[in-house]
Amino acid sequence: xxxxxxxxxxxxxxxxxxxxxxxxxxxxxxxxxxxxxxxxxxxxxxxxxxxxxxxxxxxxxxxxxxxxxxxxxxxxxxxxxxxxxxxxxxxxxxxxxxxxxxxxxxxxxxxxxxxxxxxxxxxxxxxxxxxxxxxxxxxxxxxxxxxxxxxxxxxxxxxxxxxxxxxxxxxxxxxxxxxxxxxxxxxxxxxxxxxxxxxxxxxxxxxxxxxxxxxxxxxxxxxxxxxxxxxxxxxxxxxxxxxxxxxxxxxxxxxxxxxxxxxxxxxxxxxxxxxxxxxxxxxxxxxxxxxxxxxxxxxxxxxxxxxxxxxxxxxxxxxxxxxxxxxxxxxxxxxxxxxxxxxxxxxxxxxxxxxxxxxxxxxxxxxxxxxxxxxxxxxxxxxxxxxxxxxxxxxxxxxxxxxxxxxxxxxxxxxxxxxxxxxxxxxxxxxxxxxxxxxxxxxxxxxxxxxxxxxxxxxxxxxxxxxxxxxxxxxxxxxxxxxxxxxxxxxxxxxxxxxxxxxxxxxxxxxxxxxxxxxxxxxxxxxxxxxxxxxxxxxxxxxxxxxxxxxxxxxxxxxxxxxxxxxxxxxxxxxxxxxxxxxxxxxxxxxxxxxxxxxxxxxxxxxxxxxxxxxxxx
Length: 618
Prior knowledge:
single chain; 618 residues; alpha+beta; Beta-galactosidase, Chain A, domain 5; Glycosyltransferase; 3 domains; 15-stranded antiparallel sheet; 26 strands
């Protein structure tokens, strides 16, 4: 049975990532890339679907930590006969990926076991296993090859590879599992000894670019390392999470594949990277963004593959039982075909912010931005699927319209501040019109709050973005009322859920946990409203949800007091970073981003102009 979500740590090589349990079991690993098929899928099934265990025999008490400012994980097992360390990390050489597991005796004598079950294709393909002349074990399935290099006597039986061994104080045993293409020559054995020091050096040199930021420096640093771990070294794409189908409700069907790159993360990612002095990564992310969105604006997607792939067809893995019987297990994501107007705003906002931080100009980027605004001019009135990728039909989501306003506002600001060409009069008129429509149709005077969908009474935590985007100032009574309404209706156990699933008609059965990013947004609103003590208290409770190695999932179940959703979640860590910066700096990301719309007048409400495709009005 898989561990609790919060009992996993992540190791990776900026091409893929593995989840390591407290018990020494690696239950999830896709090779060679984040979104490749898994060769260890026990996380979503059983041990017969692939896993790699190195642990003491019998009962052992384990504690773990990352080596300081690195992604090298050390687990210490204390047994009745001795103490042993297990050091796990990943690296790569050329096209090869390497998983390194070092067993080090600390004291006494500890009986250990190695249990390796390789199953490519998400736990279903049994490899052909052979022993090479140099003693390494080779596992081949189609284009994939794994090589097990271990200074141990191992047995291949019952479709698994096993070893029983002892380790004494001062002894070290190195074990490596390496991926390469099966149709290429077999790579030579590894010299494992220097690989750990080299990996530590690379992480240390990378982290040194961040000079710290007050009392929250350590948790911010760990979140930055996690973000880097989810970044592809070559393409610059950042996946939303390392996993697929970890449920938003234990036993429920809200299980999605998050091993792709969302445009929605664009601006937050740039803020996190640039405010913490990771300029190279920010430039690589912006370039990924430009390449992914390039082409016809009519074909803009909300998410893409790691290298910008567009075909992300969703299908269900019928042979996997799901995490704690949460089915279906999904590969791919059908939401890639949804219309979500907010991504236009995210792209234009990210490009504008990059310019303000001095990232070198790119003529291709401005041409793309102008084309996107031209497209948005034609479609901004249309209903869409919304930020939360609901599957209950398109609606007039208030947040989507606000993000359309953001897109036009940032285009205007880019043109004005950086002397770029564009139809400014036309854009200014459109910006004003969208603002008027949102204030008229997206605000309910009786509730004293903006609402999720025009003409309804439902709330949405995405409305917390209104002052963070500069659409209205934090002190505007309508913003204050919206925050108060969300506090009243969407708080569960002191944290914020996205919306009320049961009444929103999102097209999905079951429920979900509280969405951690939304709770960080509430803390950001408190900061802008001058409620700093409340913001700090909420932030520290959120930070307290991190597991023992500083990782967050997408959601949290306040009733079960467990993490839920995919893990670790880039969006959660991005929001943690930005809220920490908002608390520690006089001009943090919320204040900086929120100033963008200061010159926009808060107009009196007007009626929504009629338009084809605008949908029914209530």
